[in-house]
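Continuing the batch. This is chain 6 of the set; chains 1 through 5 are on the previous pages. Same settings as before, nothing changed between runs. Recording input and output for traceability.
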Amino acid sequence: MDGTERKSAVAEEQAGQRLDRFLAGALPDLSRSRLQALLASGAVTRGHQTIGDGNTRVKPGEIYVVQVPEPAPALPVGQDIPLTVVYEDGDLIVIDKQAGLVVHPAAGNPDGTLVNALIAHCGTSLAGVGGVARPGIVHRLDKDTSGLIVAAKNDRAMASLAKQFAAHTIERAYNAVAWGAPRAGDGVIEGDIGRNPFDRKRMAIVRNQGKPARTRYRMLERYGGEARAFASLIECRLETGRTHQIRVHLAHLGHPLIGDKVYGRARKPPRAKTEAEQIAYTAAAEFPRQALHAWLLGFQHPSTHKHMRFESKWPEHFAALIAALRGLNQ
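Output for chain 6:
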């Protein structure tokens, strides 16, 4: 029955039941743990609202919809996908990920991921490290975010890197190109991040059921307009690692990423008066993905304990966008 939409209506005699118990009775073929995972992933909705709390009390007449994804393969397989390897040894591998590459298999992306590429590249050394579904994966980058990511090749490296991420001692810096420019040249954005209650595919700053999130930002360049900038280049450093954190935080600040179709929309540019302005406005409007690049990654090596620091150059199309925007300042 997987890969379907399952609807369940609340009867009068079921009023006041906890949602997780109601769903367990309505969908007996799904285990409690499976239902809890579906609730946590935002797969349960009531009307247009996502319901992620199993403790919610149901009311007569309510209709709950559970989106049950297609079952994923038990084990990801190796696939010959080109990788840009920045560093590799017996403990870990650092990849400069291209935009468009999903990190690990999930609903909608069962293969063709970084995990599939790593299995093919590393062979049996990666098997089972950190779990069979996501071997070696310590942290993630969004599909359309480019830049540096580290993967573990053995359990010791996995444990060490995971501990560093949990302690927030990993150094991570991103370059983001955003619409407009923050009034303050630098600052900190704080706000708990969780599933958007009205759209399960989006994250949002929420009051309840969110996880603490903190992003430091610094404006590096400002493009066009003395009173109101057209766009800006911002460096973001993560103190936590929540899903879509930079994208959500900058959108909350009022400056969503250029190219981000989920958390922002293209700004209407002023009428172009010069060729440089036309080039810049077109480059921004047509940028094909969120303008976010993980340019810096630093951590302590699991075995040698030496500090390692890696930098990534901007991808060609990212550099071209910034070059076009810089034309607004000439």
